[in-house]
């Protein structure tokens, strides 16, 4: 089926078009720069930016795919989880298109969409299921057991405070680096010693593992970095920014991969898929490669354009639902900022 996907859950306005498993276009407009001076995504600003970016993104995605809107078999849209006001822009646009074009609509889960991105990655054969998926972005840090992309997705664990990308952004801010901080820390970390400072690995002590085996916590790590930096300043020492960045990055990557590989081993699932903007991180990638190889786990990391928020992954999840014979959503669904990952499609 020929499906158009609309993604507006955070700061990317994404319109993607797929035909079956083939990616035809994937237009992304980001309002990241507008949030820079606030040091994080501002919901009102994001929603307004989606309103402005949506029609131009739609026009260029359709042109690039070489189709007309009439050719479409269905519209797919992210209905949650995400920022309410931002989601509403995409949901409203998708409903308007569906009604005007008289096409079926599929309201889908953003996180499951990230997993669906793997199908569009042409660098190899997509994963069979079950697979473990680790989704790490500015808004999410989630570990999923995907038994069936369109039928059975289980949340094994998630962050109990800050998301991993959020931690990168906050630590970057306290080091005086620009937003978004992830890329800045990554760049500096390459010049530092990851063993210089031993920062805490959240929720990995035996007592925490009993209750939070697959959950994450990054706010303690952030506080620990802040305390360490303050102490150096109090002592009149120059802060070794590159060492702090490298040691912090190492702590985040270590926790992410320790828990993801533990899930693969515990559930006897020798496949790990990564998604989300933090996957751009060089240490997350290299440690994933090392640990997966050591554990005999196959690793898939889609290209970054499919890892960060985009419309194509939403279109693909819609296409998969159609191919599996799922009925479309009724038009009375609404955006749900806290949509659970078990709800793959909202009917
Ligand atoms: P959502 O959470 O809804 O999926 P988002 O917009 O918060 O969306 P993404 O756009 O996928 O998330 O990713 C942005 C985040 O990824 C930011 O927090 C950014 O700092 C982080 N990031 C980007 N590049 C890197 C990097 N090289 N290392 C670490 N973090 C990075
Ligand atoms: Mg984003
Ligand atoms: Fe996302």
TrEMBL record:
Any Gene Ontology CC annotation: cytoplasm
Residues involved in Fe cation binding: 110, 114, 309
GO terms, molecular function: iron ion binding; tRNA N(6)-L-threonylcarbamoyladenine synthase activity
Swiss-Prot/TrEMBL GO biological process terms: tRNA threonylcarbamoyladenosine modification
Reaction it catalyzes: L-threonylcarbamoyladenylate + adenosine(37) in tRNA = N(6)-L-threonylcarbamoyladenosine(37) in tRNA + AMP + H(+)
Cofactor(s) of this protein: Fe(2+)
Protein's cellular compartments: Cytoplasm
Protein EC: 2.3.1.234
Cofactor binding remark: Binds 1 Fe(2+) ion per subunit.
Main EC class the enzyme belongs to: transferase
HAMAP family attached to this UniProt entry: TsaD (MF_01445)
Function field: Required for the formation of a threonylcarbamoyl group on adenosine at position 37 (t(6)A37) in tRNAs that read codons beginning with adenine. Is involved in the transfer of the threonylcarbamoyl moiety of threonylcarbamoyl-AMP (TC-AMP) to the N6 group of A37, together with TsaE and TsaB. TsaD likely plays a direct catalytic role in this reaction.
NCBIfam families named among the record's database cross-references: gcp_kae1, T6A_TsaD_YgjD
Protein name as it appears in the record: tRNA N6-adenosine threonylcarbamoyltransferase
Organism in which the protein naturally occurs: Mycetocola miduiensis
Lineage: Bacteria, Bacillati, Actinomycetota, Actinomycetes, Micrococcales
């Amino acid at each position: 089926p020929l499906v158009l996907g609309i993604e507006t859950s955070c700061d990317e306005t994404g319109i993607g078009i797929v035909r079956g498993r083939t990616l035809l276009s994937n237009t992304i407009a980001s309002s990241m720069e507008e949030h820079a001076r606030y040091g994080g995504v501002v919901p009102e600003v994001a929603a307004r930016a989606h309103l402005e970016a949506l029609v131009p993104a739609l026009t260029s995605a359709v042109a690039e795919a070489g189709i007309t809107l009439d050719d479409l078999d269905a519209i797919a849209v992210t209905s949650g989880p995400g920022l309410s006001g931002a989601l509403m822009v995409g949901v409203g646009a998708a409903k308007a298109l569906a009604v005007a074009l008289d096409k079926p609509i599929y309201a889908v889960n953003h996180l499951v969409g990230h997993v669906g991105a793997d199908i569009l990655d042409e660098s190899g054969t997509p994963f069979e299921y079950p697979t473990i998926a680790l989704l790490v972005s500015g808004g999410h840090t989630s570990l999923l057991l995907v038994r069936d992309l369109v039928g059975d997705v289980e949340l094994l664990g998630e962050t109990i405070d800050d998301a991993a990308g959020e931690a990168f952004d906050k630590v970057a801010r306290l080091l005086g680096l620009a937003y978004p901080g992830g890329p800045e820390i990554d760049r500096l970390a390459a010049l530092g010693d990851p063993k210089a400072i031993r920062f805490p690995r959240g929720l990995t002590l035996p007592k925490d593992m009993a209750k939070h085996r697959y959950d994450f916590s990054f706010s303690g790590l952030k506080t620990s970095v802040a305390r360490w930096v303050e102490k150096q300043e109090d002592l009149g020492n120059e802060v070794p920014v590159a060492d702090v960045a490298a040691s912090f990055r190492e702590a985040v990557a270590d926790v992410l991969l320790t828990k993801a590989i533990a899930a693969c081993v515990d559930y006897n699932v020798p496949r790990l898929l990564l998604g989300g903007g933090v996957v751009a991180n060089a240490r997350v990638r290299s440690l994933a490669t090392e640990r997966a190889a050591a554990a005999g786990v196959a690793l898939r990391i889609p290209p970054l354009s499919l890892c960060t928020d985009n419309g194509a992954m939403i279109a693909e999840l819609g296409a998969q639902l159609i191919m599996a014979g799922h009925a479309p959503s009724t038009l009375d669904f609404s955006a749900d900022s806290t949509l659970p990952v078990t709800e793959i499609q909202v009917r």
